[in-house]
Specification:
By secondary structure, this protein is α/β, with parallel strands linked by helices. Helix content is about 50%, strand content about 10%. The protein has 2 domains: about 5-115 and about 180-305, Rossmann fold (3-Layer(aba) Sandwich), CATH 3.40.50; about 120-180, Histone, subunit A (Orthogonal Bundle), CATH 1.10.20. Strands 3-2-4-1-5-6 form a 6-stranded parallel sheet, sandwiched between helices.
Length: about 300
């Protein structure tokens, strides 16, 4: 029996994954699963570039507005929920799309990862106290000592991921990176990865324009409404952190917006560094819908009767 197919649309922020994935989903008459680790959250819309109902054009989307920022949600829970959802969707569809820029979440669905130990409350309190006294720089320095390899890969501004890696290192006495390199899980579907990228100049220009558009749409007001929750993991995110600092009078608004642009550009570079290590990704320009359809026809028979000639 032919395996069903999961097409994964991958790429850095602001590259155009949403528009291309919706166009492709309409061609294939299939649903879309979001693998953007911030679009899950109902309270975060403008700053996550969450697609509107109009932009979705009637294509069913999952894992958008599916959780609250106050929930304890992580990549392990996403893996379990996404695999369960795929089992249901594949009963009706030969093909499903997954779209996002969160490499860890994509890997969890396509390959799975080893179950890692949970830290006890005392250890978590110790790590939190380091953050309170020394900030992210203190956590970053500790991770660099414990696991220099993962230090070069992780988003160093993501407090949750840095803290989690430190937890695992201290719990096991082993580098977090060594424990993440287990055998891939067997999946009962094919994963076909399509990467979107373009020149650095074009990408950076699109990032800057997107940030300006977010501010026009009311990002500052969205952040103000979330200020009471700024310590939550979900809000340790580019576009939110910088505006929380502005509201705390740590910088002016112009500087905060410029910092959002800079940090988003740096984030895009880290995303590309992660994805380029995966030889299974086939790369295209973001406007190459016809080329992508041709590629899919070449690699998987599931698309033969779906893609319109």
């Amino acid at each position: 029996m032919t395996k069903k197919s999961l097409i994964v649309i991958i790429g850095p922020t602001a590259i155009g994954k949403t528009s291309l994935s919706i166009a492709l989903a309409k061609e294939l008459n299939c649903p879309v699963i979001s693998a953007d680790s911030r679009q899950f959250f109902k309270e975060m819309s403008i700053g996550t570039a969450k697609p509107s109902k109009e932009e979705m054009q009637g294509v069913p989307h999952y894992f958008i507005d599916s959780h609250s920022i106050v929930e304890d949600y992580n990549v392990g829970k996403f893996e379990n929920e996404a695999i369960g959802l795929l089992e249901k969707l594949f009963q009706k569809h030969n093909v499903v799309l997954m779209v996002g820029g969160s490499g860890l979440y994509i890997d969890a669905v396509c390959k799975g990862f080893d179950k890692l130990p949970e830290a006890d409350a005392e250890l978590r309190e110790k790590i939190n106290s380091i953050f309170e006294s020394k900030g992210m720089a203190g956590l970053q320095e500790l991770l660099k000592d414990l696991d220099p390899e993962y230090y070069t890969k992780v988003d160093l501004q993501n407090r949750h991921r840095v803290s989690r890696a430190i937890e695992v290192c201290l719990c096991t006495g082993k580098p977090y990176s060594s424990l993440r390199e287990g055998k891939n899980k067997e999946r009962n579907f094919n994963s076909i990865k399509v990467g979107l990228n373009t020149s650095r100049e074009v990408l950076y220009s699109q990032i800057n324009q997107r940030v300006d558009e977010m501010m026009k749409q009311g990002l500052l007001e969205e952040v103000k409404a979330l200020q009471a929750h700024k310590g939550l993991n979900a809000l340790q995110t580019v576009g939110y952190r910088e505006l929380f600092d502005y509201l705390d009078k740590k910088n002016d608004l112009f500087s905060a917006v410029e910092l959002i642009k800079q940090n988003t550009r740096n984030f895009a570079k880290r995303q590309l560094t992660w994805f380029r290590k995966d030889p299974g990704i086939k790369w295209f320009e973001p406007d190459a819908l016809e080329e992508i359809k041709k590629y899919l026809l070449e690699v998987d028979t599931n698309f033969m009767n779906l893609i319109r000639k």
